[in-house]
Every structure is written in C-alpha cells, then in structure tokens.
Design goal:
The chain is an all-alpha fold. The protein contains 27 helices and no strands. α9 runs antiparallel to α10 (about 155-170). Mean pLDDT is about 90; it is low at about 5-20.
Length: about 450
C-alpha cells in the first residue's frame, strides 16, 4: 500500500531539482540587475533597448538609487532617456547637485536624462552650473534647460529666456555654448526671442553653423516676424545655410513661402532638396507633388528620394497616393524606396493598399529578396487594418524570430484575439528567449490568459 505514495515522493524528489533549476527569463534578468557585474548589466540593457522592453524598469530604478557604478548609472540613464521614462529624476538631480563628487560621465548622463524627461525640478540646479561657470557641463546643461523649458509655464519660460540671453550677451560663452543657447531659445518657443535670434541669423560675420542654428530656432518658434530672416537665409551663398533656411519653412504660410520651397527643388546641393521635401511634407503642399514624384524617381541621393516619398505620404491627397502606388509597383524601384512607399501607403489607407503590399512581400519571400522581405514584413507588422489577419497568421508561422515579432505586433495592433493559439507556443522561453516575453505581453494586451 505504501509503494505507490513512496514511489510518488521519490519521483518528486528526483524531479524537484529540475524544477528549481528552471528559472524564467525575467527572473534571470532580475538577478543580473541585483547581483550582476557592470558588464552583465550593460549587456542586459542593450538587450532591453533592442527589444524596446520596459518590464524591468522598476528593478532598474531600484539599482540606480543605490549604486555609484558609472557604467550602470550611465547605461540606465541613457535607457530611460531613450524611453522618455520618468522615475530617475530625484537621483539625477542629486548627482547634478553633487557633481564634484561624481564622475563627469555620470553627471553628463544625469543632465541628458533630466532634459529628455523635461524634469522641471532640474532647472535651478542646471542654472547653477552656468552661474558657477562649470565649463565641463555648461553645454549639456544649456541644452537640457532648453528641453525642459519647452514644457515649462510661460512665466518660467520667460525667466529662462532672460537668463540665457543675458548669459549670451555678458559672459562671452564659448562657440559651442552660444550654439546651445540658440538651440535652447528655440525650444522655449517664445516670440520674445525672435529679434535676438534673427540678428544672429542674418549677420554675415557670424559663423555659418551658428546662423544655421539660429534659423532652426526661428523655425521652432514659428513666429511670422522671423520669416524675413529665414527668406534671407534661403538666398545665402553658403549651401548649408540655404538648406537650413528651407528646412524651417514648413510652419509658415503664404505664396512666397510656397514658391521658395518649390524653387529649392532645383538647388544642386542635395541638402537643400532634402530640406525642400521635408518642408513640403510638413506643409502638406499639394503643388509640390510633381516635384516630389520626380525626386523620388530620379534623385541621385537616396536620402532625398526617401524624404520625397515620406513627403508624398504626408500630403496624402489622391495625386500623392497615386504617385506612391506607382512607385511601389514599378519593377525598377530600389527596395529601400519600395519599403518607404509601402509604409506611406499603409499610413494613408492600410485596408486599401495592404493586399498589394502582401503580394509583393510574398513574391520577395519566394525569390529570396531578403532586404525587401524584411522591410515589408516590418511595414505589415506595424499595420492597422482588419484585413491583415491572414498575414498575421503567416508571420506567426514563420521560422524567423524577427518576423514572429512582427506577427505579435500585428496581432496586438489589431486585437486579433482569435489568434491566441498561434501565440501560445511562443511562450517557450527555452526555445524563443526574449521573444517569449513579447508573446506574454501580447497576450496580456489582448486581455487573455496564457
């Protein structure tokens, strides 16, 4: 009678070590954060970045609060800055205030972080860096102040503007710091800075890069009083200044602005054509469609072609959509341009254009055109349309981990709950590693149980 229970207990004793050895990927990663070396943690952060994963953020916040390790601190600050994720503000401000006791690399990463998340409580400590003329951090501090100021109250913006303009005029800052101040003034978006910035933008004695920075700031402020300085920049003899001036015309209106953008497509300097495409897209300038179509098909610079395609996608009228569709279906269109065209078509009307994109994706797969296949898989994975369910099934049946990830994204985007049975096999961490966590997150997002 005792044999069966005894046998069962013995089996449990034999098997239990196996269970204890089994550890989920997330638990292993948590242990790395808690007990790992700086190199192990840095490698983990790189993996989390690649996967755009946030599930260990709370653990990372905990370690930042207690560690002094430079590599860990800079790695986590950078990771959270890229995510625009709050949670480290208090520690970052503490490091900035105690900067003489910290490694310079740590302080810079803390400054960059508070700028990225627009931490208002960091404005005063950053201003203190300028007042004490702490040259090691002035440039980073100014840029962070500008980013933070973009989200401040009007009153605080004006105080920041007055402080920075006075610093520029009275402290004789270094060249790079002057450029940083112009950047920061543009970030505030205050019209009160326009006259000051315009004088610099139109001053022929200023360095071209400073004038370019000034023009870009005028474009951010978007006040019509800065338009004369921008138009003057369009006619400058320096091609880089011309390109910067064209690039900021998007927010401005009027026939002169439209004609200036169209004329810029004729400029032999590729950056000016690139800027014209971006400005035309930002303004949704329908009269630019023929120019954009020509550039997308014929420009010798790939970046200009891609910018033209994206601008057509932003304009998105019937003529622009037709141009994109023709470009996508032409045999001689380079793969990279086909992919961008597909992306734009999906953004215009995924339900309408996805059948053609799926067809070309499947042809590329059969013909082993890896770059085109991968690019279109990503476009489809980001899609939102009810008729994408079959391609979601196909992606989830792939042996390629990247395509599996796109399939998961597609299911999540479109709430294809009836495909959960295709996702469950991907929960096997031994076989799929970090993809298993993505599968679990997808199931959670669908409101289902694994």
């Amino acid at each position: 009678m005792l044999r069966k229970p005894l046998f069962f207990i013995l089996c449990l004793l034999l098997i239990s070590p196996l269970f204890s050895e089994e550890q989920s990927l997330m638990d292993k990663q948590r242990d790395i954060i808690r007990y790992g070396t700086e190199t192990e943690i840095a490698n983990l952060i790189a993996t989390l970045k690649k996967d755009n994963a946030t599930y260990l953020n709370d653990e990372l916040i905990k370690i930042v609060k207690v560690t002094q390790n430079v590599k860990i601190l800079t790695g986590v600050f950078s990771f959270f800055a890229d995510q625009n994720k709050s949670g480290l503000e208090e520690r970052a401000v503490e490091i900035i205030q105690n900067r003489y006791d910290e490694q310079k690399e740590t302080v810079r990463s803390a400054i960059d972080y508070v700028g990225a998340v627009k931490a208002q409580e960091a404005l005063k400590p950053l201003q203190d860096i300028l007042e004490t003329e702490d040259k090691s951090f002035i440039n980073s501090a100014i840029r962070a102040m500008g980013k933070i100021g973009s989200n401040s109250s009007t009153e605080d913006k004006k105080k920041l503007l007055d402080f920075l303009m006075n610093y520029y005029k009275t402290k004789d800052p270094a060249d790079d710091d002057k450029n940083a101040i112009l950047f920061a003034l543009g970030e505030t978006g205050l019209a009160e800075a326009v006259d000051f910035i315009s004088d610099i933008a139109t001053n022929p004695d200023e360095r071209p890069f400073r004038r370019m920075t000034a023009l870009e700031s005028l474009g951010k402020i978007k006040d019509s009083r800065g338009l004369d300085a921008i138009i003057k920049g369009v006619k400058d003899s320096d091609p880089n200044v011309r390109a910067s001036a064209i690039s900021v015309l998007g927010p401005f209106s009027g026939k002169e602005v439209e004609n200036t953008i169209l004329e810029a497509f004729r400029d032999s300097f590729y950056k000016t054509r690139l800027a014209a495409a971006k400005a035309a897209g930002e303004r949704k300038l329908s009269s630019a469609v023929p120019y954009l179509k020509f550039r997308a098909e014929n420009d010798e610079v790939v970046a200009v072609k891609e910018a033209a395609v994206k601008a057509l996608g932003q304009i998105a009228n019937a003529e622009a959509s037709s141009a994109l569709f023709d470009l996508f279906n032409k045999k001689n269109t380079p793969d990279a341009i086909k992919v961008v065209s597909a992306e734009m078509l999906m953004s215009i009307d995924g339900a309408k254009y996805s059948p053609d994109i799926i067809r070309v994706y499947q042809e590329a797969k059969q013909q082993k055109q890896k770059a085109l296949q991968s690019g279109l898989a990503k476009v489809l994975g980001d899609g939102r349309a009810t008729n994408l369910k079959n391609i979601a099934k196909e992606l989830l049946g792939s042996t390629d981990v990247v395509e599996l990830a796109y399939g998961l994204q597609l299911v999540k985007n479109n709430y294809f709950t009836d495909l959960v049975d295709l996702i469950k096999p991907l929960l096997d961490e031994k076989k799929y590693g970090s993809l298993a966590q993505k599968a679990r997150e997808t199931i959670d997002a669908l409101g289902l149980q694994p």
